[in-house]
Write a structure and sequence with these properties.
Shape: globular
Bound molecules: S-adenosylmethionine, iron/sulfur cluster
Strand content: 15-25%
Distance between the termini: 27 Å
CATH architecture: Alpha-Beta Barrel
Oligomer: single chain
Number of strands: 11
Structural class: alpha/beta
Largest sheet: 11 strands, mixed
Order of helices and strands: EHEHEHEHHEHEHEEEEEHHH
CATH superfamily: Aldolase class I
Number of helices: 10
Length: 348
């Protein structure tokens, strides 16, 4: 179902169909129209670079964003010019109301695409509903095609379900299907071509992502980092059939095998060479607004809403937070007092 067919509601517009509120911009001339919202911090996997083996300590339910709070934050973001939303986590499909949230986001004025990032295990349960709701894209995370390695990286035995659900997603009417692969030296870097070969017959994008230092076990310090330039070099050495093509804002390198249906991208998430083009707003599962992936400090929007803050107050906090965004992720990281321990609270 194409999104234009859906009747849009909610975000107030003036008669010329433009939002009456200001847009989110910063001092460095960047504007922010992409909201990444972690709707959950729990997960049914325990990826070694993301979650401790025992999982995260269970929190009181009212410490995490409720359905109504998520809807409010999406609506306010749409008023401020957000046109793209991604639900992430933790594992977003562990939320029973995930399809209702997708439907709500799709229905808002100004929202052009609604996507989610998932480990794929539960996707078969939701795919039909997502199609009907108008979900635009799904990123499925999968770091290896080998069963023994899958168990090593995720500490669970679910590769079969993930592969089957990737096939279902490819056959669905959802426009964009991407596979996220975190590349780790001496762990899966020998599988680059196996992933790339999936793009020959399938209209998918395989995204090779740099490992980031957000894990309590610090596998980061064990020499597994494989920088985007090395990933690219490696790919080009292995195949002379693959050529650089124009990519999107976040894809430092975009490639395609000649004649392939799908594409390949390399994402410099650690080397941070794309900060100048940043358009992202992040909200954690407990409602913290982050103006950078590498920042730990942010206003808690959930607390503000719980204490009776008006939409006007929430809008003004978001605008203020972004005006003061650091020029790049290095400065943001250096200015934060704490180091993030898990990506599951922020969703990547
Ligand atoms: N559970 C969902 C999933 O795995 O797709 C959504 C949340 S997960 C935190 C989002 C993305 O962040 C996944 O693609 C995952 O591989 C990536 N990620 C998590 N920790 C990471 C790290 N330390 N470095 C790089 N990517 C990481
Ligand atoms: Fe779960 Fe995603 Fe983190 Fe893996 S990367 S533990 S699937 S939240």
């Amino acid at each position: 179902m194409r999104m234009e067919n859906i009747n849009k509601i909610n975000a107030p517009l003036d008669s010329s169909e433009k939002s009456v509120y200001p847009k989110i911009v910063d001092k460095h001339n960047r504007s922010f129209n992409y909201l990444r919202l972690a709707v959950n911090e729990y997960c049914n996997l325990r990826c070694i670079y993301c979650m401790p083996e025992e999982g995260l300590p269970l929190r009181n339910k009212n410490e995490l964003l409720s359905k109504q709070e998520i809807k409010k934050l999406i609506n306010i973001s749409a008023q401020l010019g957000v046109s793209k939303i991604r639900f992430t986590g933790g594992e977003p499909l562990l939320r029973k109301d995930i399809n209702e949230l997708v439907k709500y986001a799709v229905s808002l004025n100004g929202i052009e695409s609604v996507n989610l990032t998932t480990n794929g295990i539960l996707l078969n349960k939701y795919l039909k509903d997502f199609e009907l709701a108008g979900l635009t894209g799904i990123n499925i995370s999968l770091d290896t095609l080998r069963p023994d390695r899958f168990i090593k990286i995720t500490r669970r035995d679910n590769l079969r379900e993930v592969l089957d659900n990737i096939q279902l997603a490819i056959k669905s009417n959802i426009a964009s299907i991407k596979i996220n692969v975190v590349v780790m030296r001496d762990f899966n870097h020998d599988e680059l071509m196996d992933f790339i070969n999936l793009t020959i017959e399938n209209d998918i994008t395989v995204r090779f992502i740099e490992l980031m230092p957000f894990d309590s076990h610090q596998i980061w310090k064990t020499g597994k980092f494989y920088k985007s330039k090395d990933i690219l070099k490696d790919i080009q050495e292995k195949s002379n059939q693959i050529k650089l093509i124009d990519g999107s804002n976040t894809e430092y390198y975009a490639l395609q095998i000649q004649g392939a249906k799908g594409k390949v991208a390399v994402i410099p998430s650690y080397t941070r060479s794309l900060c100048g083009k940043c358009n992202r707003i992040r909200i954690t599962a407990d409602g913290k607004l982050l103006n950078c992936l590498y920042s730990e400090d942010g206003f808690n929007l959930k607390t503000i809403i719980q204490n009776g803050g008006t939409d006007e107050e929430v809008r003004s906090i978001i605008l203020k937070s972004f005006v003061n965004k650091y020029k790049d992720g290095w400065l943001a990281q250096n200015s934060s007092e704490n180091q993030r321990e898990s990506m599951s609270q922020i969703g990547g």
